[in-house]
From TrEMBL:
<feature type="transmembrane region" description="Helical">
    <location>
        <begin position="82"/>
        <end position="102"/>
    </location>
</feature>
<dbReference type="Pfam" id="PF20040">
    <property type="entry name" value="DUF6442"/>
</dbReference>
<dbReference type="InterPro" id="IPR045620">
    <property type="entry name" value="DUF6442"/>
</dbReference>
<keyword id="KW-1133">Transmembrane helix</keyword>
<protein>
    <submittedName>
        <fullName>Uncharacterized protein</fullName>
    </submittedName>
</protein>
<feature type="transmembrane region" description="Helical">
    <location>
        <begin position="31"/>
        <end position="50"/>
    </location>
</feature>
<keyword id="KW-0812">Transmembrane</keyword>
<keyword id="KW-0472">Membrane</keyword>
Length: 106
């Protein structure tokens, strides 16, 4: 093995290590964002419920987010459970948003 080959292998190894680090950081950021998003949704739902305002819009947004995540996972992982949960979350989101619209115009 000559010097150039050693340097090229080292460079490829460092690049792969950096990619893994970026993937790890992205995954952790995604998890933290989901936690904060969920906490904000729950806070808004309790606040609106306490004040007598319909919470269908808040839960509709939350279930739409969950549907999007499920369909994305199904697209790349091809597990039927993600397709089923995506469909159920989509139906739930549509019903909740419809309920919010109906309650708003009463």
């Amino acid at each position: 093995m000559d010097k150039k080959e050693i340097l090229s292998r080292n460079k490829r190894y460092n690049k792969n290590e950096e990619d893994e680090r970026e993937e790890y950081i992205s995954a952790k950021a995604g998890i933290n964002a989901k936690i904060v998003f969920s906490l904000v949704i729950v806070f808004l739902a309790f606040f609106k419920h306490y004040n007598g305002i319909s919470t269908g819009d808040v839960w509709g947004i939350f279930t739409a987010y969950a549907a999007t995540e499920s369909f994305y996972k199904y697209h790349y992982l091809n597990h039927t459970k993600f397709l089923i949960s995506g469909i159920l979350f989509s139906v739930s989101s549509a019903i909740l948003l419809l309920q919010f619209i109906i309650s708003t115009y009463r």
